[in-house]
Design a protein that fits this description.
single chain; mainly alpha; two-stranded antiparallel sheet; 5 helices; 2 strands
Amino acid sequence: MDKETKDLKVLALFTRVYCADHHAARERDVVVPGIASTAKGHYCTECADFLSYAIDRRRCCPLDPKPSCRHCTIHCYRPGHRDKVREIMRYSGKVLIMRGRFDLLWHYFF
């Protein structure tokens, strides 16, 4: 599995956890080409739009090799989306680690 696919799977998982805990109405399925089985899930309209935007930004990254967004010199997200991705990652990371997903610690630190 390449790094881009792994990053997109983590992003979809984190967004799905955040949406399930914060938004009652889940209206849309998001299918991401190449990672459909992992990204598919029910999302509210706001989270589905955010996830689509974030996936587009990740796929258009001009850097090779791609550093983690936290250590990147180029910020691809618009300012409002940067705050949203921080909020989603912060919340979902804690929740998933508390659920026993220690494999995500590697993604967090690197």
